[in-house]
Amino acid sequence: MAAPGASNLVILIIMFTEERARWIYQHYRWLETHLPKRAAGKQPVLVTPTPEFYPQANTRNHAFAAAMFEATKELMELQNWKCRLSSQREDHADRDAALARSGVYGRTEHKGAAGTFQIDEEIQITYSPQLVHEPVALVATFSHELCHYLLATVKTEPPCGWKEHEPLTDLAAVHEGFGVFLCNSAFQFSQWTDSQYQGWKWRKQGYLTEAELGFALGVYCVRSGIQPDTAGKFLKMNPGEVFWDSIGYITELEEKERAAQMGAPSIAPRRRSVFSSLASLWRRKSAQK
Hints:
Elements: H1 18-34, H2 62-75, E1 84-87, H3 93-101, E2 104-110, E3 115-119, E4 123-127, H4 135-151, H5 165-185, E5 187-193, E6 198-204, H6 210-224, H7 228-232, H8 237-261, H9 274-288
Parallel strand pairs: 1-4, 2-6
Antiparallel strand pairs: 3-4, 5-6
Helix pairs in contact: 1-5, 1-6, 2-4, 4-5, 5-6, 6-8, 8-9
């Protein structure tokens, strides 16, 4: 039996427009100028879900989360920035048990980053304890919340205004090198069945969509001079499709900006637009339903 509504799940890439892509590009450039600078001469580093960056053994408890948090702070050069990490209260257990007893288990979650950033007498960052079972989503959450800390130091208002600070914070996490983690945790779907039970679950995490994050990661790679395959080989299909199709578009956008600064004639498009590629992908997905 298919999960209720599974056949009607919206493929998030249909919401991605050229206007939104230019918002991402514009605000990424703004972040480059306004976020605190890294150590002199420090090159951008794409953080990947590998032991090179996160060698910690997953003990699925707060000690593991704390170790991952400290590693993320160090990768962002924030190890000397004081803040306290704490686990949120978990309230899903009773509901999940009741659903499981019914024989069909289903759950939908739509949330922003699965954590919070608070300033009281001290900086406090919280996370959902469920995330110790999902290290990629855990790192995505930590990088997002730590970017709230970074953005709190910025005095200049962004072009979008502070009302859009949450999607801007997702973009800041991509700028800091954590785009692979945000792309791969933005949308999760799973289902299972056995002799007694069947179930499904989908969850959206974060404020930018899979498509927007895939494009943002493309901007990061082009602007940082990082080979696309370094990131692309780690990506799930949906953000990966957008990521690979975005590279040519972003490269051409950069060329147009350089030409405009030099007063040269505008460059005619030479590559298929990422948006025509997305339209083709949407048609293929629809035909498979």
